[in-house]
Amino acid sequence: MFRVKVKTYEKGLLFKGQDLIKVLNSGTYWIKGNKRVKIYSALERFEAPIDISLLLKNQELYEQLYIVEVSDEQIALLFKNNVFQSVLTEGTYAYWKDHSLYTFKILDMNKLKVEEELSKKVLEYLCYQNIVKKAEVRNFEMALVTKDGELVEVLKAGSYYFFKQLANVQIEVVDLRQQNMELSGQEILTKDKANLRINFECTFKVNDPVVALLKNIDFRKQLYTILQMALRAYVGQLSFDEILALKSEAGNFVKSECKRQCIELGIDLISCGIKDIILPGDIKDIMNQVLVAEKKAAASMIMRREETASTRSMLNTAKLMETNKMLYKLKEMEFVEKVADKVGEITVDGKGSLFGQLKGMLSTPP
Q1: Strand segments (E) across 149-298
Q2: What is the mean pLDDT of residues 268-288?
Q3: pTM of the model
């Protein structure tokens, strides 16, 4: 006979051979015969010394344990007193009932995503354990979920968690905001064989993510190509001078030409147009020479116009002075005033008229 003491937070199992006879709760026991006792902490998981399915045939033990069975396509979330503890994978698990409340949530990993209501802490832990992957869809995005190449679900803004066990599931996120695309350095021949480099820009947005992502391969690259072809068609049908004159019309032409293709890409083409036209060096020199010649001709025309106006004004003044003596005198006084501003001293001897003397003083000596 031997004495066994089971403490408050312990459990004892009394065995005879390999057979479980009794569960010993806290207390002191005297054991007779060829028997043995195994003590367990009632605060921890029950680790069975033999196949647990054999022990659970004992009704007394079965009633004192929380039992959870997890298949190979499941995981179980363990909560102790409503606080998350750990993730349980395939197997059978047992926890003592007396001192703690254990609850379990079974997650089926054959499902596409985690649908159970779980806290962010638990979900982030599952990501850390590489069990699920997180998909974050912002408020200006949509996401397409495909399985084996087929569309399964369209996701709006929010956070989603997908089981990584399903390797054939893909998540593609598309931005629904307005975007820009630039076609830089497009070298194009005009109708009269002038080689131009053109920078073209467009603004677009995706209005049908399913069409853009699932029915097309790289819709941005395809959009670039159709814009490029439309721009070349526009420039190729016009001469160099017409391109410069009709630069602003290029956007309308390209938008009209690409309308049908953009619908097939799931895209709304908002606006487009030529940003820059870069001329070759020889054409640039010629254009500069033409500009200089035009400006010189304009300046010469203005000078001739001003000279004509000045001569006409002088002629009109002379005619008035010829018929009006008072006006002649006023002009004479104006002339004297101008001379006085430039001459320091004037001597008048009283011989002849004042105008004649002034004329004699200012005339160039022989």
Answers
A1: 150-155, 158-163, 169-175, 179-189, 195-206, 267-278
A2: 78
A3: 0.63
